[in-house]
Design brief:
alpha/beta, 434 Repressor (Amino-terminal Domain), Rossmann fold, 3 domains, 6-stranded mixed sheet, 15 helices, 12 strands
């Protein structure tokens, strides 16, 4: 029996390397001229049983990319756990891309959509630059952005409402008698950093409390940065009685520093995080956190993308997921009510 076409014979026919053929047949980013050569050679040799080769005829790869800043961040993992089954049920495979929040890398991901290695993209950019907006406006495949983009950006958009989330947290701390609430934020030039900083100012104003620059420390959205930022804040303002942390990883770093300093949580310093990740319930003490609906945002983004793949003429849609405050021991002590009883819905405010 004659041997069917192989990667080697396709490479010989196309005049490219075996590695290049493998990349094309596995749907990985490759130069467009190489893709064209491999596609033509595969079709000539009858390699039509392969899923990628079939996609040459249908112009579909049945793959979708998910680009996020850090694949290890539990908020993104919560999104991923919802995105994948929605896409799988519709016959799509998921390709993961961890950008490290590097703008150039994110722009490259958008640019590579022209190579048609995926049928669509879900992305979570921490910064939205003019370059992002230009690439989104001219994207060669459907894109759904999780996070805030300017009004009129021609993509489907799923947002959190972290400004309202911060206000929920500060209202809760104020009710507990806390008046010197520090903010440990991520970079203010990021979408979440800007929104959470604005929410903090708005909440203080609504509560009749003054904004004090000495109570604000800027780091990054990682546990180690949380440790450094909280240590600096406590050194500068040892009288602080509560911490509003821009995500759960920063809050976990805060718990590390407070424990090492002999400061009791919540008796001496109450701590609130954001994202309500799995780590919040598992920490010691368990962490009060603002849920920004990471799982719901992921699921919604996947559903919007599938709709877009079926009908590319649908008007771009905006979905905002409301925040919930989940009260645990880090603010209310070990007698905190079950998290389901402590959820509080927010409304209004900016979304990011």
């Amino acid at each position: 029996m004659a041997q069917g076409p192989t990667i080697t014979t396709i490479a010989q026919r196309a005049g490219v390397s075996i590695a290049s053929v493998s990349r094309v047949l596995n749907g990985l980013p490759t130069r467009q001229d190489t893709v064209s050569k491999v596609m033509a050679a595969a079709e000539e040799l009858g390699y039509v049983r392969n899923a990628v080769a079939r996609s040459l005829k249908s112009s579909r790869t049945h793959q979708v990319a998910f680009a996020m800043a850090d694949v290890g961040n539990p908020a993104y993992l919560a999104m991923l756990r919802e995105i994948q089954p929605v896409l799988k049920a519709a016959g799509y495979r998921l390709v993961l891309h961890s950008t490290g929040a590097d703008v150039a890398d994110e722009i490259d991901v958008l640019h590579s959509l022209g190579e048609r290695y995926v049928d669509g993209l879900i992305m979570v950019p921490l910064r939205v630059t003019e370059a992002h907006l230009r690439m989104l406006a001219g994207a060669r495949a459907p894109v759904v952005v999780i996070g805030s983009v300017p009004e009129g950006t021609p993509v489907d958009n799923v947002r959190a409402d972290s400004r309202t989330g911060v206000r929920l947290a500060l209202d809760h701390l104020h009710t507990l008698g806390r008046r010197r609430v520090g903010l440990v934020n991520g970079p203010p030039d990021t979408v979440p950093g800007a929104a959470r900083g604005a929410g903090y100012r708005e909440a203080l104003e609504a509560l009749g409390l003054p904004y004090d620059e000495e109570l604000v420390e800027i780091g990054d959205f990682y546990r180690a940065d949380g440790r450094r930022a909280v240590a600096a804040l406590l050194d500068r303002r040892p009288d602080i009685d509560a911490l509003m942390c821009a995500n759960d990883l920063i809050a976990l770093g805060a718990l590390d520093v407070l424990r090492a300093a002999g400061r009791r949580v919540p008796q001496d310093v109450a701590v609130v995080g954001m994202d309500d990740t799995d780590l919040a319930a598992a920490s010691w003490p368990s962490l009060t956190s603002v849920s920004l609906g990471s799982a719901e945002r992921g699921r919604t983004a996947a559903e919007l993308l599938l709709d877009r793949l079926q009908d590319g003429d649908v008007t771009p849609r905006l979905v905002t997921v409301p925040p919930r405050l989940v009260v645990r021991a880090s603010t209310a002590g070990e007698q905190a009510p079950p998290s389901g009883d402590a959820d509080r819905l927010g409304a209004g405010g900016g979304a990011a």
